[in-house]
Design brief:
Length: 285
C-alpha cells in the first residue's frame, strides 16, 4: 500500500520546496503517502484539474500562475477562498473538489509562533507594502485579527487603489510609498509582500527609521532568510518575522486534508528547509 498521493502544480515549478516540506512530515510522522511537483502550463491546467481523480490524487497545492483559475474550477470554496478569489490548496470532500487559500493562515501562524504577543498590544495601524496576490491574502488576515486601519502601499498607486476596491472594507486605504512613509510613526505593524529584497532582486527602498519601538516588521521573502529590511529592523531592536515561517505554516492544512494528521512546524523542519535553501544558494554562487 502506497498511501494518498498529493502534488504541487505551477508553471514553472522547479523551485518549489513543497515536496521537501511534505516529504519531511511524512517521514517524521511515519505515514504512507507521496507528494510531487508537476509543471503544467496555463492552457493545460483545466484538463489537469479534471483528471485529478482518475490520476489517483487526494488533492494538492496550487501556485503561480494557477491560483485564480483553480478557484474557478472548484466545486466548492471555503469562505476565505471566496473572499480572495484564489486557491492554493485542493482536496476532495466526497466527489466535490474543494478549494481553500491558506496563505493568510500561514502568515498568521508564523507570527503567532515567532512573536506570540504580536497582536495583543496595539492594533491601530498596519502597513502592507505591495498590492499583489500575497498582499490581498495578508490584508484579509490582518483584518480578521482586528486591525482598525490598513494602509496598502504600492509604488503604482493605481494597483493599490484596485486592491482596496476589491477588498471592500472601510478600514483599508490605498497609498504610495511616500504616504506610507509618512504614516510610519503611527504604525504598529509593517509587512513587505513585494519581491524586493529577494535573491536576485534589488533591496526594498523603504526606510523604517520612523517606526515606533513596539512595531513588528514582517518580510514574506524567505530567500535570503535575512533580508535587508529585516536586518534594518533588527538593528533598531524591533521584533521581526521572516518569510520561511509563512511558507511552512501555509502547508500544514493541506497535509491534514490529504494524509489525515495536522503536522507541526518544528525547529527541525525549519532547519531542514533552511539547509536546503543555503545549499541552493551556495550552488548558484
Amino acid at each position: 500500500m502506497s498511501g494518498p498521493k498529493a502534488f504541487v502544480v505551477g508553471w514553472p515549478i522547479a523551485h518549489s520546496r513543497s515536496p521537501l516540506i511534505h516529504g519531511t512530515w511524512l517521514k517524521q510522522l511515519g505515514l504512507l503517502g507521496s507528494y510531487e511537483k508537476i509543471a503544467v502550463p496555463p492552457d493545460a491546467f483545466p484538463a489537469f484539474i479534471a483528471g485529478l481523480r482518475q490520476a489517483g490524487f487526494a488533492g494538492g497545492n496550487v501556485t503561480i500562475p494557477h491560483k485564480q483559475a483553480a478557484a474557478a474550477l472548484c466545486g466548492q470554496l471555503t469562505a476565505t477562498a471566496q473572499r480572495l478569489g484564489a486557491v492554493n490548496t485542493l482536496w476532495f470532500e466526497g466527489d466535490v473538489l474543494t478549494g481553500d487559500n491558506t496563505d493568510g493562515a500561514g502568515f498568521l501562524g508564523a507570527l503567532d509562533q515567532d512573536v506570540p504577543d504580536w497582536d495583543k498590544r496595539r492594533r491601530d495601524l498596519a502597513i502592507v507594502l505591495g498590492a499583489g496576490g500575497a498582499a490581498r491574502a495578508i490584508a484579509d488576515a490582518l483584518l480578521t485579527r482586528g486591525f482598525s486601519r490598513l494602509i496598502i502601499a504600492n509604488r503604482t498607486l493605481e494597483r493599490a487603489d484596485a486592491l482596496v476596491r476589491d477588498i471592500r472594507d472601510a478600514r483599508c486605504e490605498a497609498s504610495g510609498f511616500l504616504g506610507a512613509q509618512a504614516a510610519l510613526p503611527r504604525a504598529d505593524f509593517l509587512v513587505n509582500t513585494t519581491s524586493a529584497g529577494m535573491r536576485g532582486q534589488p533591496p526594498l527602498d523603504f526606510a523604517i527609521d520612523d517606526l515606533p519601538e513596539h512595531a513588528v516588521v514582517d518580510d514574506i521573502v524567505y530567500v535570503p532568510r535575512d533580508t535587508p529590511l529585516l536586518r534594518a529592523a533588527s538593528a533598531r531592536g524591533l521584533r521581526t518575522v521572516g518569510g520561511l515561517g509563512m511558507l511552512l505554516h501555509q502547508a500544514a492544512p493541506g497535509f491534514e486534508h490529504w494524509f489525515g494528521v495536522l503536522p507541526k512546524v518544528t525547529p527541525e523542519l525549519r532547519a531542514i528547509v533552511e539547509a536546503d535553501i543555503e545549499a541552493d544558494l551556495e550552488a548558484r554562487r
